[in-house]
Write a structure and sequence with these properties.
The protein is 55% helix and 25% strand.
Length: 128
């Protein structure tokens, strides 16, 4: 008889282990899914931020005026599939300073919710 009790106890514990494993797999699956949705967007945003800094650093070179900076940033945003329009990019020279501001929102859609990631990039550098 004591052997029978051990067998029954093990069977009930095995069911609890399966539920815990299933729950962990669901959590890992959701994390991977969200990573696949968000990581590429974040990489593109950081790359675009680098492009804004680069345009500000080269603002002092000949023929690198506000219109060219704006066109370059819009082209880079298109390459990165970021929803940046002409009205979202503001470029201003004031004396020996260049100021670039880009505001945009990137929607990331999931089956449950659409996340609107808002960005407001500001760069202000001296022109040499």
């Amino acid at each position: 008889m004591p052997g029978d009790r051990r067998v029954m106890r093990r069977r009930s514990e095995a069911g609890e282990g399966r539920f815990g494993t299933l729950f962990a797999l669901v959590v890992v699956g959701v994390a991977i899914y969200l990573g696949v949705k968000f990581v590429p967007v974040l990489i593109n945003v950081y790359s675009f931020r680098d492009s804004i800094d680069e345009q500000a650093r080269f603002a002092g070179t000949p023929h690198h005026d506000e219109d060219l900076i704006k066109r370059n940033l819009l082209a880079r945003a298109r390459e990165l599939d970021l929803p940046v329009g002409a009205k979202d990019v503001f470029v201003e020279r004031a004396g020996n300073q260049i100021r670039i501001r880009v505001t945009y929102t990137v929607p990331v859609e999931t089956p449950v919710h659409t996340f609107n990631m808002k960005y407001d990039e500001n760069v202000s550098l001296p022109i040499f």
